[in-house]
Design goal:
Low-confidence stretches: none
Bound molecules: oxa(dethia)-CoA
Shape: globular
Helix content: 25-40%
Strand content: 15-25%
Strand order of the largest sheet: 1-7-6-4-5
Number of strands: 13
Largest sheet: 5 strands, mixed
Amino acid sequence: MALVKISSVGIGVPPRILTNHDMEKMVDTSDQWIQERTGIKQRHIVDPGTTCSDLATEAARQAMEKAGLTPDDIELIIVATNTPDSPLPAVACLVQHKLGCKHAWGFDLAIACSGFLYAMQVGVQFVASGAHKNVIVIGVDVMSSVIDYTDRQTCIIFGDGGGACVIQPSTSEADGCFIDFLHEVDGSGGEFLCIPAGGSAHPPSKETVEQGLHFLKQDGPVVFKFATKRMPEICVRLLDRNNLTGADIDVFIPHQANLRIIKSAVERLGIPMEKVIVNIDQYGNTTAGTLPLAMDTALKEGRLKKGDLVLFAAMGAGLSAGAALMRWGY
Ligand code: UT7
């Protein structure tokens, strides 16, 4: 199997910002509580009419241009999202059309916050097998479309946005490459983070809307416990099977769900905070969007450099978790 690298990163973030002080006017909360319990200061929220595919297309366009590619070069578009423009068609098809990628096929993959890493492994396999050379992997969510802005435990966490990567064959480890992926799901925990209605179990109806069953429901403390246990555990298993420890990692890019979850994972992994990318204060939790957004932050802050050994970690609805190891190549 050929080596596969990330060649570029682009982002799609709506300009409108909702600060914690704005949230104080919407629910019974405070800037102090939100910052202390989550690390979040603000999140970006779309204006009416801006869709998941708009953000995905912007991210993909940036990534494509940074990689020096044109729409004709793109062969496959994979979009990780749980908040598509509509149930059908797939966001990947909308991005393909909006970008004018005449030769690309694509599909969506839905596993919430773990989506970007899962989609990345799928994309990597298409490149590693030799099937494709230029693949765009996107992680993006418009969480504001499924959030109940009267539910203070949930609404303060989430934001809209995401990012995209171009992945291509690599010539050597020095050129950058993925080293390993590890994923797991525990479907017994599905009820703790879910959108109850809108699917085949409870098709949308007047009753489901009146009961607010089309909104995201979360048992925050249960998900918190899952995250603090399973996210570091899966990282340790991935590091172990590659004969590595946290001390070998140059940059840790974790899912941005809660700063306390990140700090607890980092402590268990033995990675100093200066090697950890955190931007939850700016974006909140953008679900499938957090990892590409964090990569962009790391690049813009000059904290992700050629040759760095990078560990990614994700966890979310499912319940699900994932981790990836790679050598950064540019
Ligand atoms: O990407 C995966 C998605 N989700 C997650 O990763 C979420 C993981 N969970 C969390 O991040 C945390 O559980 C939350 C941030 C959601 C909640 O924080 P917590 O420290 O677990 O709070 P809690 O739910 O245990 O509530 C503690 C108190 C309660 O008040 P009482 O009963 O002690 O009087 C809540 O009613 O905090 C109250 N509370 C709030 N107070 C002010 C809950 N939300 C708020 C709020 N503002 N927004």
